[in-house]
Amino acid sequence: MYAVIKTGGKQYRVQAGDLLVVEKLDGEPGAEVAFGDVLMLGDGEAVTVGAPLVDGAKVSATLIETRKGEKVKIFKKTRRQGYRRTRGHRQSETVLRVTSIAGVGKTDKWDGTVNLAPKALLDARARNLKNVVAELEAAAPAAEAAPAKAAPKKAAPKKAAAKKTDDAAE
């Protein structure tokens, strides 16, 4: 089952379990978000189109994090005039995990668990930045932090090189 929802002036096709990045929404990580602006519901060949909204349809999601998006550079130049200006912008965005879609007498729920680890922490783990990971995990509440990995094994000490003597060389 899928739905087409409208939020932030854009339309998104979502299914239960999808990870969705939308314009900034209010709420704390772990909060439930409900979308009532469902434009269309589909289940295989059966499609229900709203006029303009589907009556009684609702999409529920869990807010994972609110962050800043990718950098956009704005560069202006007038040639041969010595005029150059550089500006930039980072749009605020919210990351959501769609947990259920309900409407037209049918419901589709996602059975997984929502991991609230922010993208910065996942990126730091992928790049093996231990000091950044420790800093981000300390800032996050203990209940939301991912389980700690097992302590790495220490390498065995190197054997001392055997000293060569003149008798052994002959």
Automatic annotation (TrEMBL):
Lineage: superkingdom: Bacteria
Region (Disordered): 140-170
TM regions (residue ranges): none
Cellular component aspect of the GO annotation: ribosome
Compositionally biased intervals (Basic residues): 151-162
UniProt cross-references to InterPro entries, sorted A to Z: bL21-like (IPR028909), bL21-like_sf (IPR036164), Ribosomal_bL21 (IPR001787)
One Pfam family named in its UniProt record: Ribosomal_L21p
Segments of skewed composition (Low complexity): 140-150
Keywords, in A-Z order: Ribonucleoprotein, Ribosomal protein, RNA-binding, rRNA-binding
Similarity comment text for this entry: Belongs to the bacterial ribosomal protein bL21 family.
Matching PANTHER family: 50S RIBOSOMAL PROTEIN L21, LARGE RIBOSOMAL SUBUNIT PROTEIN BL21M
Record text on subunit structure and interactions: Part of the 50S ribosomal subunit. Contacts protein L20.
HAMAP family reported for this sequence: Ribosomal_bL21 (MF_01363)
Free-text function comment from the UniProt entry: This protein binds to 23S rRNA in the presence of protein L20.
Protein name according to UniProt: Large ribosomal subunit protein bL21
